[in-house]
Amino acid sequence: MPPKHSAKIPLSEIAKLEHLIDQEPARAPSEVSKRQAVAMLAPKLYEMRRKGYAWSDVAAWLSKNGLTMSAAALQRHLRSVKDTTARGGARGRGRGPGDVNGNALRALAASTSAAADPTGPSPKASPPLGPPVVEPKARDVEPPKVAPGFTVRPDRRII
Predict the structure, then answer these.
(1) What is the pLDDT of residues 107-130, one digit of tens each?
(2) CA separation (Å) from 58 to 19, 31, 32, 36?
(3) How do residues 15-72 score in pLDDT, each as one tens digit?
(4) Which phi and psi angles does 82 have, rounded to 5°?
(5) The pTM of the whole model exceeds 0.85
(6) If phi over 0 gives left and psi between -120 and 50 gives alpha, with beta otherwise, what is residue 137?
(7) CA angle 104, 100, 117 (to 5 degrees)
(8) Which of 10, 22, 99, 116 is placed for a possible disulfide with 104 were both Cys, Cβ 3.0 to 4.6 Å?
């Protein structure tokens, strides 16, 4: 009768495997999805918009240069990028196999930006379009004219 293989693994073997895993380099992806490509290009795409291009022009330019998509799909991908960064997580299903926490996308983005300009500062989020919005303070706004019989309590802030 052949000997049975033990289902138990010695702790020394686990420690050895942990050490080997720690020594493995991070794996950078060689391909990304269209959504991930739009996420990586988002700051530059918004820059094209600031230059006066319509979304249809940006989508046509992307299609001409190898990233085929409609203006609606481009806007949908950009919205999902905004939603993901605002909430700090992925929307809907997971990000995909092998990318548990989005590390592959971040690693690829970091490697491409470092390769483009190794000494330059990291790209920052671009400011919103148009002049900055300054909201008046409550004390600067005149109270609205109201019908007789209704008065705003002095201890309440006017919205």
Answers:
(1) 555 555 544 444 555 555 555 565
(2) 48, 22, 20, 17
(3) 999 999 999 988 888 899 999 999 999 999 999 999 999 999 999 999 999 999 999 9
(4) -60, -45
(5) no
(6) beta
(7) 20
(8) 99
